[in-house]
Every structure is written in structure tokens, then in C-alpha cells.
Design goal:
The active site is at residue 107. It catalyses: coproporphyrinogen III + O2 + 2 H(+) = protoporphyrinogen IX + 2 CO2 + 2 H2O. Involved in the heme biosynthesis. Catalyzes the aerobic oxidative decarboxylation of propionate groups of rings A and B of coproporphyrinogen-III to yield the vinyl groups in protoporphyrinogen-IX. By secondary structure, the protein is an alpha+beta fold. Helices cover 40% and strands 25% of the residues. The strands form 2 sheets. A 7-stranded antiparallel beta sheet has the order 1-2-3-4-5-6-9. The protein has a two-stranded antiparallel sheet with strand order 7-8. Helix 1 (6-28) packs parallel to helix 5 and helix 3 (139-153) runs antiparallel to helix 5. The protein is globular.
């Protein structure tokens, strides 16, 4: 078995964070803050944060590299073979919440995990993906995002996009609401069957395609005129984002249970959110069309 090159993965992830932040700063016109942090149990990271920018009301692009000897329950529950091993987890995770309700929220994550014990083969895997959460749906945006996701995976197998799209649809689903969080994208985890080099190449391809997937959409929508109605609907729908991240998201649970830095873990939360009791959109409205035409499992390409 090829020995995982953890240093190469870390270097790639740190470079990816910087490339993404540089592109987003050019789009927004405001610099991201730099917040470096350390974790008492081992490791640390760098959170890059923007608040009240020209395009982004809030956004975070975080790199973390944490390590320890006792896995949190969210990671160890279904992997008893990891017991007693030292572990490392590293990744880049981002969430962007634009001001404009016509510009979608986006999430991307690429990560690597390895657990080591003396005299035994290392246990490792990659995971990640990206997904789009619009408040007002545009078919050209949805097609572009999903096509770029497919382009990222195409070199690694004709069947991967269908599998990872379905995985994303299933994962980013609010069971208590019986609705998707957004229009999906791709999601994968526990990836090691291709061997280290190919798995690492797949992760790089996903990370490298993020800007191609999202920037054209943000540029198209960031200056669209909107009013109080659109803003109210945006903050209402953001509530679904919060519900998913706090109730279902494995990354959030892993971060909190492993003693990660709370501010960096919860940087994904939107800054302004509203909940309303038993609210329904007006029939035939653009808000209703989001539910009927976009918040469904659909083949966009």
C-alpha cells in the first residue's frame, strides 16, 4: 500500500485556502480577516473571515489540522477498528452568505483523515464536496454548478458524478422538514478505494473546481435589485441552513466533540436569520417556485 503523504495534502489544502480567499477578495473588494488558532489537544488552524463586505454579508474559509489519541463519538461510532489509534484530520471548509437574496449561499469542504498505530497499516480516507443553497432559483445557475461538479469528477470514473450527486442529495436533507437544504452538488466520504494518489487527485480536482462552480453565479446575481420581501424570504430560508448544521452535519459534530475552536466551527452560520410559525409562500410566487422547481431531487444536466 502507498504510504499517505500527509505533508503534501496539508500543503495543498493551505494553498487552496489562499487561492480561494484571494479570488473572493477580488470579487468583494474587502479583505478577509486572518484568525490563527491552536488546539490544546494538538494542532490548530487558520480561519479567514469576512463580515459586512460588499458582496458577502458573512463568509469563512477555514483550514484546520487537528490531532489526538481519542476519537470523538461522531467519528468512532461506526469505526471500531480506529480504537486506540492516534489520528490526524485536516481540511478546508468554507461557507459564503451573500447580502443579495438572489445570490446563493454556497458550501465547500475537502478533508483528509488518517489513524495510525505502531505495527499496523494506517487507516485513511478523503472526503468532501460542494453544494449550493439558493433563495431564488435560476436554472442556468443550477445547471452550471452541477456541470462543473461533474467536470471535477469525470477523469476518475463515469459513474462517480451520479453516485456523489445522489449522496449529496441524501446527505443535505432535513428529515424533520422533509425537504432538501438546497439544490445539492456532490458529496463523498470514506474515499480510499482508488489508492492514495488517485484519491488525492480526486480531492484536488474537487477543490480546484470550486471557484469555477461558484464565482460566475455570484457575479451574475450580486447586483440584482431586491427589496424587503426578498430579504425577508432569504432570512427565513437561512433558518433551514442553521437547522441542518446544528442537527445533522457530521463536520459540525466532529469539530465540537473533538474540542475544536467553536468560533471557527460555527463560522458557517448566517449572521441574520428569522423563523416564522407555519409560514407558506404565496401560490405562484417566485418563493413558491423555489420549493416546487428547485428544492427537489432533480437531474440538472
Amino acid at each position: 500500500m502507498t504510504t499517505p503523504q500527509t505533508t503534501a495534502v496539508k500543503q495543498y489544502l493551505q494553498d487552496l485556502q489562499q487561492r480561494i480567499v484571494t479570488a473572493l477578495e477580488q470579487l468583494d473588494g474587502k479583505d478577509f480577516l486572518v484568525d490563527q488558532w491552536e488546539r490544546a489537544e494538538g494542532g490548530g488552524g487558520t480561519s479567514r473571515i469576512i463580515e459586512n463586505g460588499n458582496v458577502f454579508e458573512r463568509g469563512g474559509v477555514g483550514f484546520s489540522h487537528v490531532m489526538g489519541s481519542n476519537l470523538p463519538p461522531s467519528a468512532a461510532a461506526n469505526r471500531p477498528e480506529l480504537a486506540g489509534r492516534n489520528w490526524e484530520a485536516m481540511g478546508v471548509s468554507l461557507v459564503l452568505h451573500p447580502h443579495n437574496p438572489y445570490a446563493p449561499t454556497v458550501h465547500m469542504n475537502v478533508r483528509f483523515f488518517i489513524a495510525i498505530a505502531e505495527g499496523k497499516e494506517p487507516i485513511w480516507w478523503f472526503g468532501g464536496g460542494m453544494d449550493l443553497t439558493p433563495y431564488y432559483g435560476f436554472e442556468e445557475d443550477a445547471r452550471h454548478f452541477h456541470q462543473t461538479c461533474r467536470d471535477a469528477l469525470q477523469p476518475f470514473g463515469d459513474d462517480l458524478h451520479a453516485r456523489y450527486k445522489q449522496w449529496c442529495d441524501d446527505y443535505f436533507y432535513l428529515k424533520h422538514r422533509k425537504e432538501p437544504r438546497g439544490i445539492g452538488g456532490i458529496f463523498f466520504d470514506d474515499l480510499n478505494e482508488l489508492g492514495f494518489e488517485q484519491c488525492f487527485a480526486l480531492q484536488r480536482s474537487v477543490g480546484d473546481h470550486f471557484l469555477d462552480a461558484y464565482l460566475p453565479i455570484a457575479m451574475r446575481r450580486k447586483d440584482t435589485s431586491y427589496g424587503e420581501r426578498e430579504r425577508n424570504f432569504q432570512t427565513y430560508r437561512r433558518g433551514r441552513y442553521v437547522e441542518f448544521n446544528l442537527v445533522f452535519d457530521r463536520g459540525t459534530l466532529f469539530g465540537l466533540q473533538s474540542g475544536g475552536r467553536t468560533e471557527s466551527i460555527l463560522m458557517s452560520m448566517p449572521p441574520v436569520v428569522t423563523w416564522r410559525y407555519n409560514w407558506e409562500p404565496e401560490a405562484g410566487s417566485a418563493e413558491a417556485r423555489l420549493y416546487s422547481d428547485f428544492l427537489i431531487h432533480r437531474d440538472w444536466i
